[in-house]
């Protein structure tokens, strides 16, 4: 932090999700004690893909590692803020013995998971960290580090958000381990996959599609161009919309003009937030199956 602040002039913005507001307050006080102006961002903090650079001259972003596919143009410090607890996997050890297991986790648990994985390796359990940057990290929209060919996939995170995304990406069950409750369960993608394929089938009956892109790291110009080309080849008419933050009301209004929508800014929104809308709202990978009129090409998220 000291080296990051050295030589800075102007306003420093501190971004954080609500769960880290106490830490954000402490960071802001630290910055002000060094004679710099600090403001707390009141914008939502969904991940390192969305840094609101216009709010200041430099940014301190809490709770995430840098986004692998985008870098802010302004000086930015990412502080992952590791969980102060300890990840313990003794309750699931017997389930993993004799198998090749690939492990992924979230930013706040990564350092603790690295330690426990080393301990399990020393005990003869065949476990590896996912092939991401950094090793072991999974994002809600990026599971490319989960290489195929392993017997088990273990996702260590609170809730099922990351494990569900991983299971849809891999098209197989994964083990979801909650480090807070130390409970685990298998997450089967097929009940949700059936619903998503139904949405894809519905979209195939349409002709006009809205492609909704975002800003900063959620602005995916190359992806948008590729989807426009795919849509045209498939006989669909595409319209582009841009939004810094999406709301359900906005998406519902867009759907009044088209037959279905594709969200490129955050591919989790169609799955987690907009699945109950009357018309299909799809992730980019799902949209390709529509444009090529082939359900076997379904993929999630991209």
From TrEMBL:
Pathway: Protein modification; peptidyl-diphthamide biosynthesis. Its EC number is 2.5.1.108. It catalyses: L-histidyl-[translation elongation factor 2] + S-adenosyl-L-methionine = 2-[(3S)-amino-3-carboxypropyl]-L-histidyl-[translation elongation factor 2] + S-methyl-5'-thioadenosine + H(+). Its cofactor is [4Fe-4S] cluster. One of its GO terms (biological process) is protein histidyl modification to diphthamide. Pfam families: Diphthamide_syn. InterPro entries: DPH1/DPH2, DPH1/DPH2_1, DPH1/DPH2_2, DPH1/DPH2_3, DPH1/DPH2_euk_archaea. It comes from the Archaea. One of its GO terms (molecular function) is 4 iron, 4 sulfur cluster binding. Keywords: 4Fe-4S, Iron, Iron-sulfur, Metal-binding, S-adenosyl-L-methionine, Transferase. Belongs to the DPH1/DPH2 family. NCBIfam families: diphth2_R. Catalyzes the first step of diphthamide biosynthesis, i.e. the transfer of the 3-amino-3-carboxypropyl group from S-adenosyl-L-methionine (SAM) to the C2 position of the imidazole ring of the target histidine residue in translation elongation factor 2 (EF-2). This is 2-(3-amino-3-carboxypropyl)histidine synthase. It comes from Ignicoccus islandicus DSM 13165. The lineage of its organism: Archaea, Thermoproteota, Thermoprotei, Desulfurococcales, Desulfurococcaceae.
């Amino acid at each position: 932090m000291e080296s990051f602040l050295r030589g800075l002039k102007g306003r420093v913005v501190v971004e954080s999700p609500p769960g880290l507001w106490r830490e954000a307050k402490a960071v802001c006080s630290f910055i002000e004690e060094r004679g710099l102006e600090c403001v707390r961002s009141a914008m939502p903090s969904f991940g390192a893909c969305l840094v609101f650079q216009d709010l200041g001259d430099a940014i301190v972003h809490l709770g995430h590692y840098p986004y692998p596919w985008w870098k802010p143009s302004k000086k930015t410090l990412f502080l992952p803020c590791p969980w102060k607890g300890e990840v313990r996997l003794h309750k699931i050890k017997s389930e993993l013995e004799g198998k090749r297991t690939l492990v992924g986790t979230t930013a706040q648990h990564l350092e603790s998971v690295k330690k426990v994985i080393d301990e399990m390796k020393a005990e003869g359990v065949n476990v590896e960290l996912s092939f991401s940057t950094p090793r072991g990290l999974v994002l809600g929209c990026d599971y490319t580090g989960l290489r195929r060919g392993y017997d088990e996939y273990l996702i260590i995170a609170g809730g099922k958000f990351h494990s569900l995304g991983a299971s849809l990406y891999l098209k197989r069950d994964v083990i979801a381990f909650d480090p807070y409750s130390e409970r685990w369960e298998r997450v089967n993608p097929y009940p949700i996959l059936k619903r998503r394929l139904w949405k894809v089938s519905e979209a195939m009956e349409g002709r006009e599609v809205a492609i909704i892109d975002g800003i900063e790291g959620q602005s995916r110009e190359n992806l948008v161009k590729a989807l426009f080309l795919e849509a045209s080849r498939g006989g669909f008419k595409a319209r582009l919309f841009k939004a810094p933050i999406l709301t359900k009301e906005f998406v519902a209004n867009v759907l009044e003009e088209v037959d279905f929508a594709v969200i490129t800014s955050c591919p989790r929104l169609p799955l987690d937030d907009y699945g109950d809308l009357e018309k299909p709202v799809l992730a980019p990978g799902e949209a390709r199956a529509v444009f090529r009129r082939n359900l076997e090409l379904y993929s999630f998220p991209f």
